Amino acid sequence: MIDLIWLSLFLIGIGTAMFTGHMQRVTGAILGGAEHGVELSLALIGVITLWYGLMNIAEKAGLIDILARALRPLARWLYPSVPANHPAMGAILANMSANILGIGNAATPLGLRAMRELQTLNEDKETASDAMCTLLAVNTASITLIPTTVIAVRMQYGSTNPTSIVGTTVIATAIGTVAAILLDKFFRAMDKRRRAR
Q1: What is the DSSP secondary structure assignment for residue 197, as one 8-state letter?
Q2: What are the CA-CA distances from residue 142 to residues 103, 116, 127, 132, 172 (Å)?
Q3: Is 0.85 surpassed by the pTM of this model?
Q4: Which letter does DSSP use for residue 123 in this model?
Q5: What is the C-alpha to C-alpha distance for residues 161 and 163, in angstroms, rounded to an integer?
Q6: Which of 16, 55, 61, 180 could be stapled to 137 by a disulfide with Cβ–Cβ 3.0 to 4.6 Å?
Q7: Is residue 101 within 8 Å of 55, Cβ to Cβ?
Q8: Distance of CA 183 to the CA centre of its chain
Q9: Which helix (H) or strand (E) holds 186?
Q10: What is the pLDDT of residue 147?
């Protein structure tokens, strides 16, 4: 459905440009945007590679394991239906650790792996389980201590202090995560009450 909406918007924009005589401006904007996107992507490769390298060193040094152990009690509370020794719990902890450290590009495949593992525990294969919904909420809102991609973009655009957003990012993502957890618990309790009737 969303594909149809985007296609409609694109076609309406092209049609409007053709009928109003602004096709040249639209073509310039499309090509300029594509060129700018490639330049930004190339600039981000260096920063992302640096952070991946640092995270690889941190992982080999045991930092990710330490963070995962620290997060285990929280994960047990958030995902009570997932056995502690199940591969899903390991993937969930790795996903949470990657998000906290600001390496969302690494968190995405870990989140997908966690979803696949959670699906093995899911009794109703056509409906997302409680744990799957919680993972989606927590992963989307996740607390981020080091917003590496945003810092890289700010550096690319010449910010004099690209790391000045770290404090506000931590606060905003913490509020988002707490809100996601509270809403998840609230809707879970409402669903249990509805089923009990």
Answers
A1: -
A2: 11, 20, 23, 15, 10
A3: no
A4: S
A5: 6
A6: 180
A7: yes
A8: 18
A9: helix 166-196
A10: 83
Greatest alpha-carbon span in the chain: 64
Q: What is the CA radius of gyration of the chain?
A: 21
Residue written as token pair 């149809």: 4
* Contact status, residue 128 vs residue 102, Cβ threshold 8 Å: no
Cα–Cα distances in angstroms (integers) from residue 139 to residues 50, 129, 195, in the given order = 23, 15, 27
The tens digit of pLDDT for each residue in 78-89 reads 998 888 888 888
The 8-class DSSP code of residue 162 comes to G
Beta-carbon contacts of 100 under 8 Å, excluding residues fewer than 6 positions away, are 67, 71, 142, 143, 144, 145
3-state secondary structure 10-51: HHHHHHHHHHHCCHHHHHHHHHHHHHHHHHHHHHHHHHHHHH
Alpha-carbon span 35 to 177, nearest angstrom? 35
Read off the amino acid at residue 115. Answer: M
Side chain identity at residue 196, one-letter code: A
Owner of token pair 């600001």 = 102
Q: Which amino acid is at 86?
A: H
Q: Token match 């973009």: residue?
A: 153
11-18 average pLDDT score? 87
Contact 155, 162 (CB under 8 A): yes
What is the rounded CA–CA span in Å between residue 181 and residue 175? Answer: 10
Percentage of residues in the chain with pLDDT exceeding 90? Answer: 15
- Provide the b/e sequence for 103-139 (b: ≥16 CB within 10 Å): bbebbeebbebbbebbeeebeeeeeebbbbbbbebbb
